[in-house]
Amino acid sequence: MAEEQRSVLLESAAQFPVPHGVTLSYGTAGFRAEASKLSSTLFRAGIIAALRSLKTGCTVGLMITASHNPVGDNGVKIADPDGSMMAQSWEPFAEALANAETPECLVELVFQFVKEEGITFGGERPAEVLLGRDTRPTGEALLEVSKQGIKAIIGVVPLDMGIVTTPQLHWMVWRKNKGLNALELDYFMQLSESFRCLIEMVPEGITKQNFDLRLIVDGANGVGGMKLEQLKELLTGQEIQVRNACKQGLGVLNERVGADYVQKEKVAPCGFGPNDIGLRCASFDGDADRLVYFRISRVNINSVDLVDGDKILSLFALFIKEQLHMLNSGIKDLKNALPASLGIVQTAYANGASTDYLKQLGLEVVFTPTGVKYLHKKAAEYDIGIYFEANGHGTILFSEDFLSKLQEKKNYFAASSAGSDPLKACLRLLAVSSLINQAVGDAISGLLLVEAVLQYMGWTVQNWIELYHDLPSRQLKVKVADRTAVITTDAETQVLRPFGLQEAIDAETAKYDRARCFIRPSGTEDVIRVYAEASYQEAADSLAQSVSQHVDRFLGLQSLK
Ligand code: NG1
Ligand code: ZN
């Protein structure tokens, strides 16, 4: 078997040589680069996913996307059996394999790794990799290359799920490993049914008649808009209009559209104009794992009132907290109560005003480094963990144990006379757990939950915006010779290397009232990101600017010379 495996690998790897001068890192969200440089990477990602499937004895996923990057880029992320990002302990191997210079080096690495991990080729256990891709024109060819990588590991089978959103693919992997139906139609049915259930339980009389059901969604000219068009046929009680829905010849993926553009530039995407002033609008990113809301400003038509991931998180936290309270309200016998740990997970990019708001609600807020792989892991430590990045990537995780207790309680409350509030809270929490993607942040399911919660509260977008007022902030990026020269600690809020840079940042920050500033190397672009926050906009701008200059002085491109 080993000899056969060796020769299959050698032969197929020779078809996909590594391009010169390209070094890839697994980054915040898998491998990403200009698409023409990615054949060898996608082939190797196929091998990695196949080995991961052999190791776990489960189905894993391989998603071909570069999310919000320009259309000319592409990339790949691997999903673990529970639908989360591939275990970080495998990232060094993934990087080494992607950068292995020759087929011989590749084979050596694979065999050494397989030995260390105790993986058996062609074993008894079924091994399978689900493949998905977004709408990028290079996706199809790269998918074929990944299939070659998967098939180069004897006994592993690729299964093409076609064009899907990133969260759909993660959801399919998660469901499949639970032995549940995992097709796209199952996804649509689950979302539409749990949404209907939540809408049916909107309290009577809650401004139902006055609630504006209209919602306009920017699909970023990508896969998310396309899927929402399909799903919306199954939805009742919502008037969704999709723009930038990836129609042939109309609009370029992520070009002046999409959640990243709206959030970072604070402007309306293409296709939105004066007729939309005041309406509730939302935007997806290119692979539909990020969601932000916005409203075109009445004051300045070129800008938007942004409702970012922090505010989506706050809305969800408020709703879940209320349901947990209702669940235990009026319960006299303590043994019938269902206490739950509720954790909120943010990153340093969360606006300080959102953190203050959440803490003032009495919630436990914790911080992790940037990247959903960190947030997700932390959120999974609670009965209910809510995580969001400010850019709109996040979800709500329910522990299996808590869900089974909720089921029991539901049956108990349905049969007893404990009152209807605890039963309704149970039903709502169960519906949320099936609506919101348990595998990864999902713009489509997040959008439906926002709509259901707004209807439940009877809130306009204005009510939501007023939940708290963001501190003015500014994000900049600085091109540097080597971004790996920056090493941070404390959830990326402190710089350890280069020496002296943190002191310079502290000195600048001290000049402003209520100011906060940090820098970190991007995991998806060749830049250092600078984030500053202060009590007024000019202060945030000038702090970000002066810290960028320090970054440039310490590490700038001139040090290339
Ligand atoms: P990097 O490039 O590491 O900052 C960006 C986002 C992350 C995450 C990843 C993956 C910011 C500041 N960073 O990572 O939050 O979403 O892309 O897409 O938005
Ligand atoms: Zn994305």
From TrEMBL:
Q: In the record, what terms sit under GO molecular function? A: magnesium ion binding; phosphoacetylglucosamine mutase activity
Reactions performed catalytically: N-acetyl-alpha-D-glucosamine 1-phosphate = N-acetyl-D-glucosamine 6-phosphate
Q: Which cofactor does it need?
A: Mg(2+)
Give the cofactor note text. Binds 1 Mg(2+) ion per subunit.
Binding of Mg(2+), residues: S67, D285, D287, D289
Q: Which residues cross the membrane?
A: none
Per UniProt, residues of the Alpha-D-phosphohexomutase alpha/beta/alpha domain are 55-94
The UniProt entry annotates the active site at S67
Pfam families, alphabetized: AMG1_II, AMG1_III, PGM_PMM_I, PGM_PMM_IV
Q: Where does the Phosphoacetylglucosamine mutase AMG1 domain lie?
A: 206-292, 308-459
Q: Note whether Oxidoreductase occurs among the keywords.
A: no
A GO BP term here is: carbohydrate metabolic process
Q: Pathway, per Swiss-Prot/TrEMBL?
A: Nucleotide-sugar biosynthesis; UDP-N-acetyl-alpha-D-glucosamine biosynthesis; N-acetyl-alpha-D-glucosamine 1-phosphate from alpha-D-glucosamine 6-phosphate (route I): step 2/2
Highest rank taxon of the organism: Eukaryota
Quote the record's binding site residues for substrate. E389, A390, N391, R520, P521, S522, G523, T524, R529
Q: Provide the Alpha-D-phosphohexomutase C-terminal domain boundaries.
A: 477-547
Q: What class of enzyme is it?
A: isomerase
Keywords carried by this UniProt record:
Isomerase, Magnesium, Metal-binding, Phosphoprotein
EC numbers, comma separated: 5.4.2.3
What is stated as this protein's family in its record? Belongs to the phosphohexose mutase family.
Q: What's its job?
A: Interconverts GlcNAc-6-P and GlcNAc-1-P.
Q: What is this protein called?
A: Phosphoacetylglucosamine mutase
